[in-house]
Amino acid sequence: MNKKRRFALLIAGLMALSACRGNVPALPSSSGEAPAQAATQESRGSQETSSIREITPEEMAAKPLSQGEYVEDAEGKKIYQGQGTFFDTFDTVVTLTYFAPDEETFQKYLTYTHDEFLRLHKLYDNYHEYEGLTSVMTVNRLAGKGPVEVDPDLFDVLAFSLDHYEASLGKVNIALGPVLSLWHEAREAAGVHEGTGSASGGQDQSETIESHGSASDKEARLPDLAALEEAHRHTDPSKLRLDKKARTVAFDDPKMALDLGAVAKGYATEKVAKGLEAMGLKNGLLSAGGNVRLFGNHPQGRPWKVGVEDPKTNDRDQALAAMKMEAGSSMVTSGDYQRFFIVDGKRYNHIIDPKTLYPGTLYPSVSVVTGDSGLADFLSTTFFLCNREEATQVLENYKKEGIDLGVIWVDFNNRVTSTDNLSGALEVRN
């Protein structure tokens, strides 16, 4: 049984258990590289046994799986706690727990979540084109020849990424596609078979299925340095032309290629969250491959907590720390421990530094806590590639803009540190 199938079974089992008890047996992880947790709060109660049948590929690609039950809120009022999961967007597992007045309302929220994620997945996909839709792949094919009109949600994520380029010291470059494709090919040759959606091949593509290993010496090779340097000549983001009035994208360099892997899933998560809030969702948790976004407070009076995973063990039941989250906030992690390959005994992760053209090596894990999931995703990659002096500069840049950020670092000795503004909410367990 492949890893994706096994993880599908795990999620289904957790959901079945939670439906029986009204709570969920694990702490959700914000790791962008770790399996998303079907969890809403810290709960360590005994687990009931459950007979779990194997989920077929057809079911995984079909309608979202969902279960739920009526529970009492903190005031004793009956509300519906629904849990859902789906597997067919952003090469990840999306899990959610929403609280609604009734099951019908929950199903509306779930359907909207799935439909919007699927639509945005297609828009941000740099590996496929779709009839009647201009995806990133379509832009990469045509924008070097002239302006290409795009959907507002694609234009906006491009503009968002360029707007944050300078403040983040250029650590995330959505025009790094030519370089990233070489690393993608190297990982594929090494036996790290990545997905084919918009999150694949990215500067920090968040992935929920473990993708790592070492191939034979014949296969496991790093990209050629000369090829990386040549590719890097075509990654200048100033040559990406956005026309807001016409809503078009054009490349001054015909060999440029976009890749939104460091921002797409978080941006999509925030977009979906805003839509759900407009529909009336007030309480819940959405985890898209570990990009955790909260809605309101927990209606049963419990705090929302998100775990910081141990990068050495990937044991999500033994978090190194737990972050008590505020209503409407997000937490996203970038780490080196889920997607990597090994060459000559050295591990190379998937998060590529635009300056060195090689994977970042400063930390095994960095998490960002802020109000916007798209920004948290973008900046988790940024801080993963920043030394402490650079990180201080980035924090100062955003402080000047009035944006409150919290950062959690895990070093190679599993020591957890954070920015001062998180000290009262971060429970370190090591």
Give a verbal description of the structure.
- A 9-stranded antiparallel β-sheet has the order 1-2-3-8-9-12-15-16-17, with helices on both faces.
- Strand 13 and strand 14 (346-349) form a beta hairpin.
- It contains 10 helices and 18 strands.
- Residues 1-27, 30-53, 195-201 and 205-218 have low confidence and may be disordered.
- Helix 3 packs antiparallel against helix 8 and helix 8 packs antiparallel against helix 9.
- The chain has helices spanning 3-21, 57-60, 103-123, 136-142, 152-163, 177-189, 225-232, 264-279, 373-384, 388-400, and strands at 65-72, 78-89, 92-100, 148-149, 211-213, 240-243, 248-251, 283-288, 291-295, 304-308, 321-325, 330-335, 339-343, 346-349, 365-370, 406-410, 416-418, 426-428.
- By secondary structure, it is of the alpha+beta class.
- The chain is globular.
What is the approximate shape? globular
Q: Strand fraction band?
A: 15-25%
Low-confidence stretches: 1-27, 30-53, 195-201, 205-218
Class by helix and strand content? alpha+beta
Q: Please work out how many helical segments DSSP would assign.
A: 10
What is the helix content?
25-40%
Termini gap? 35 Å
What is the number of beta strands? Answer: 18
